[in-house]
Structure formats: structure tokens, C-alpha cells
Amino acid sequence: MAYVAVKGGEKAISNAHKWLAEERRGDPAVTELEVAQLREQLSLAVDRVMGEGSCYDRDLAALAVKQARGDLPEAVFLVRAYRTTLPRFGASEPLDTVNMAVRRRVSAAFKDIPGGQVLGPTFDYTHRLLDFALAADGVLPPQAVLAEEPQAYPMPTIGSVFAHEDLLESDERTEDAPEPFDLTREPMSFPAGRDQRLQALARGDEGFLLSLAYSSQRGWGNTHPLCGEIRMGTVAVEFVPEELGFAIEVGDIIVTECQMLGGSKSSAETPPQYMRGYGLVFGHSERKAMSMAIVDRALRDNAAASGQVAPVQDEEFVLYHSDNVEASGFVQHLKLPHYVDFQADLQSIRRLRREFFQRQALKEAAE
Q: pLDDT for 130-153, tens place per residue?
């Protein structure tokens, strides 16, 4: 039997594009989704695409979700590709999450944490039952009743709660601190600093990080921390123009921040205190922020030379394989033509089979 390449060329590819557009549109009798509808009503999918695409733009992320037919890794790829075309004029100042305008804030460590628990919009307390009322057009969601107690601003962080006893390690930026690693402009290098690790985790695939975090909690990494705090809300983005020399506010973004408390560290010079894992992601993405914080904590165990015992503690394994654009490309490239490789393998298999049957014939003749 002969194995030959399928021929088609540009015409076949053009028709494939048209067919894809037709499939994306679906039944023309059904009203087409608008980007604004996706942005407002599939906000968590939009937030994930923004985070893993490393580009905070809700309209672009919603457009990518629409174009990708809801395939989020494909949408991330589209956003990443677009991001490379944008001019870059500098880096913003570090986000001040202490002064976040909080929409949701919970702590599993303190019941009465200063500033209070703010449940906010969450699936945590739903029954996970299908709401068939959503299938009816024009049904408005029930309006939330705001708590009467005023919220404290700035709302104390888990770090400030521990500050008076110095029970939680701090990450204060010093004047002589080097410029943060820029993973979007520099290739990954090892051993990786924590700034590089956090960047890679922030744009890593949520499912991959979730699985690693889960494996760590089940013993493959021995990281089962307490959730010190999760907060979600709006923070200001500041930038220092060269011509001014001081910071100005250029906009607001919504972020989710998570701090996990796990284990303790001490030495002959320092008293015991909690170590922490940290996660910060675009939009409302609690599962991603929590997974990121758990994996960050596990990677710090390896960095502290406490012994690598699980994949989640191997920074090269985690950082190289967490990027869904890289992973998707490497897996899906197997669909592209490999005719030469296949022909070489085919000839090799045929040769090995001939040699096998020749040996069998000689063996039978000798018997």
C-alpha cells in the first residue's frame, strides 16, 4: 500500500478558514453574540484570557473569546500575539494592593480579621444547581443588598495583622533592589529568581497550576497551607514619566490577590515566622490566584534547599510547562505535515520487519 501526501494548497486553506468562520457563527437564525455581551456576562472567562495573555484589556479578551469559539487557550494565544504588536514605553510602579478598593475579601485563618470578611460575588455559597430561569430571556438577576457596616479603607492586610508580632515574613522592596525580571522580553533562565517565577505563574495555565497545587496538598510536595487572605478589587496603576519625574495615576484595574500561610522558617539569627506563598492575577480569578500561591510556596521549599521531592518543587518542570501557549503549540504541531519523518520511520520499520522474518526463517530452517 502506498502512502502519499494529501494535496490542497492555498485554496484548501482558504476554504478551511471560511468553514471555521461559518462554524464560529453557528445558526444564522440565532442572534450573534456581541463583544460587550461576552465582556459583561462571561467575565470570568475574559479575566482568565487577560491574565494568561498578559494583557489587561477586557474588550480585546472578549473579542478573542468570541473569535476562538470559547476555546480559552486559543483566545490566550490570540491576545499574546496581538500584544507583541503593541509599543512599550515603560514599566508601572508596583501595585499598592493595601489601598485596594475591595469588592471581596475573605480569610480562612481569622474569623474576625480586622476590616471584616466581605463575601462579595462568589460561587462559594451556591448549591451548584442549574438555574433554568437563566434560559428565559430578559430575566434580571436579584439585586444585592449591601451590608450596612462601612468598610475600612485602606482595609488591613494579613501582613498588617501579623506586623506587631513579626509572625509573617515580609517582602519589602529596598532601594538597591535590581530591576524585576521581564519574562515578556527575556528568555527564561535558571535558577529562577522569585520575580521570574511569579511572572511565569501569573501567566501560566490555570488548569496546570490547579493540578500542581492539588498534588502538593495530597502529599506530592507536602504543601497544605492556610489561606491567610484573598482579596479582589480595584487598584490604581501609576507610572513615572521621564519628563515629570514623579508618579501619576494612569488608570484602574481589577486584580485578585492571595496570600497563603504555610510552614515556618527560622535560623540561628531569626526567630520562627510563617512563610507565605503569593498570587496576584488580573480580574476575578480566585482559583488561579490560590493555585499560584500554593505553587509559589512549594517552589520556595526547593529554593530553600529543603529537598526536592515532587514535580511541583522542580522549578524547571513547573515554569517550562505551565505556559499553555507553548504547551498547546508543541502538542498541536503534531497535526502539521511530518511526511519526511513518517517516511523515514516507515522505511525503518519495514527494514526491521524484513530482518525479523529473515531471522525467523533461518531459525525454522535450522530446526
A: 888 888 776 667 666 655 455 667
